[in-house]
Amino acid sequence: MLTVTDCGDVFCVSDGLHEDLNRVKKKPPTQPVESGGRPDQIVAIDSWYRHLQRNQSIIVDTCQGQLKSRVVCPKCKRESITFDPFMFLSVPLPEASDTIQPVTFLAAAPGSAPKNYNVKCSKLGGSSIRCLRYCCDVMEC
Q: Can you say whether residue 36 is alpha, beta or left, with left for phi > 0 and alpha for psi between -120 and 50 degrees?
């Protein structure tokens, strides 16, 4: 029985499926495609065509794409633009720098009903006490 535990396993399974389902049996040698000043759309089409010369499967059709890379030499300023195939992209997820803290305000006056507030506090070196003091200043405790 096959068990997939993480995305690395999915990659191995997908890559293996692609190789098993690849319709290209005799893979011709190919050269990397450089932009050479041509428009990106033309370079992307040329790069994808070269990729398809060696890779044709349902996995390529549904799960692969191209990633544009641009590199500039800091000394001579030569620019290299390439379009590389990918099956998975690692995308950083932004971490929230604030948190919402629920606060229940109990007034000292007899018979006053409790009031619930949501206070936004910074996770980056902020103090919960400082947030609560600010909350009390706003509510005129």
A: left
| Domain encompassing residue 76 | 7-86
Place of tokens 């535990």: 5
Q: Quote the pTM value.
A: 0.58
Tokens of 42: 């033309």
Asked if 81 and 33 sit in the same domain, the reply is yes
22 by Cβ neighbours in 10 Å (0-12 / 13-18 / 19+) ranks as middle
Q: CA 47 from chain center: how many Å? A: 23
Output the six-digit token pair for 50. 């070269």
What are the average pLDDT values for consecutive 10-residue runs of the chain, which has 141 residues?
A: 61 80 91 88 95 93 91 91 88 78 77 80 65 61 49
Determine the 3-state secondary structure of 140 from DSSP.
Answer: coil
Burial of 43 (C-beta count, 10 Å sphere; 0-12/13-18/19+): buried
